[in-house]
C-alpha cells in the first residue's frame, strides 16, 4: 500500500486552522456532561516486576519504586534523575492496590453499561512492552481481564441479562501490517444453544487455520464471528484465541506480543459496539534487542501502526480534508472511532514502577498527561466561546498542541538514539 503523502512537513506547522473535515467536529459536544469527555486517559501502574513491593526491602533487594500514585487527585509523581515530575490524568490506578476487579468497576463498568444500551466505545491499552497491556486486557488465571468482564457485563453470568441480548464478536490480529483472523474457521466452539461461529454473506466457511483478511472501507472483509448470549462459552473461545496470538521473545518482555490485537464486540439489537485494542509495544529496535532483517522489519512494521495513529491525530489537528487513516491497518480499523461523534475513546496508559523503565514510563505519562491537559484547557475555553464555533476551534488547538508535543518527543527520541 502506497503511503499517503507524509505529513512530516506539517510537524513544524504551528498555524491552527479550523478543521474542515467531519472528523470529530463535535468533539466537545453539548451532550457530554463534565467528566464524560469523549476522550479520557487513565494510568494503570503494574506490580513491581519480580513480585517485590517496590518498597526497597534490602533483604530481597527490590529497588524503590520510581512512582508515587495519588488516586485522590489522579496524580502520579515520578522520581526522575533530578527532582520529581508530576502528572495529572483522568484517573490513576495501582495494580498493587487495585486488582483487575476493582479497576474494572472503577473505570470500565459504566462504559460497558453504555455499550449494552447502544453506545460505542473504544478502549486502547497503550504503553511500552512488559508494562501490563495484555494483562489488563486479558488478565490471568486468577483475575479475568477487561475482555471477559465486559462480556459478563453485557450478557450476565448465564446469558440472563437483558432478554434477547446477544453479541457478535470478531477477534483480529495486526502483525507485520497484515490482518489475521484469530477465530477458528471450523466452529471449534462446540456450538449448542445460543452459541455459534459464522461468516458474513459471501464469506468462506472452510478457511485455513490462520487467515489473512482484507479491509474494505473501514471494516475487515469476511471475518469470522462468534454469536452468542452466554458469556462463558464466548470467553472460552477467546481464551483459545489468546494462545494463537503471535508472540516472540525480546529482551524487554519474555513473551512479548509483537502484534496489535483487536476485539470487536457488537450488540446488534441496540447498535452498541465495544472495540478493545491491546497495542504492541513500540520500542525501538535497539531497546528490543532485535537482530536480523526480518526482526527489524517486524519492529518497524509494528511502529507503523503507532506512527500512523500519530499522523491521523496531526491531520485532524490541521483540519485536513484528507486524514490518512489508510496509512496503516490499525488506523483503518480505528477510523470509525475517530469519525463517529458518539464514540468514546479511553486510553489506558500502562506503566511500570521499575526505576530501570523510568524513561519509557515518563514518555508514556507525558503523552497521556499532555492529552489530559489539552482536554482540560479546552473545557475552560468552551465556557467563553460561542457554542457552534468553539468545538472546532478547540479541537484544532487541542490537537495542534498534541502535534507539537509529539514532534518534541520524536526529536528527543532521535537525540537519545544518537547519544547511544
Ligand atoms: N498488574 C500485574 N500484575 C501481575 N502481573 C503482571 C501485571 N502486569 C503485567 N504482569 C505480568 O508481566 C508480564 C508482562 O505483561 P504483559 O504481557 O501484560 O505486558 P505488555 O505490556 O502486554 O507487553 P507487550 O507489549 O510486550 O505485549 C506478564 O507475565 C504479565 O502476566
TrEMBL record:
PANTHER family: KINESIN-LIKE PROTEIN KIN-10A (PTHR24115:SF416), KINESIN-RELATED (PTHR24115). Residues 1-23 are annotated as: Disordered. Residues 1-19 have a biased composition (Polar residues). Transmembrane segments: none annotated. Belongs to the TRAFAC class myosin-kinesin ATPase superfamily. Kinesin family. Keywords: ATP-binding, Motor protein, Nucleotide-binding. Signal peptide: none annotated. SMART domains: KISc. Residues 38-374 form the Kinesin motor domain. Gene3D superfamilies: Kinesin motor domain. This is Kinesin motor domain-containing protein. ATP binds at residues 127-134.
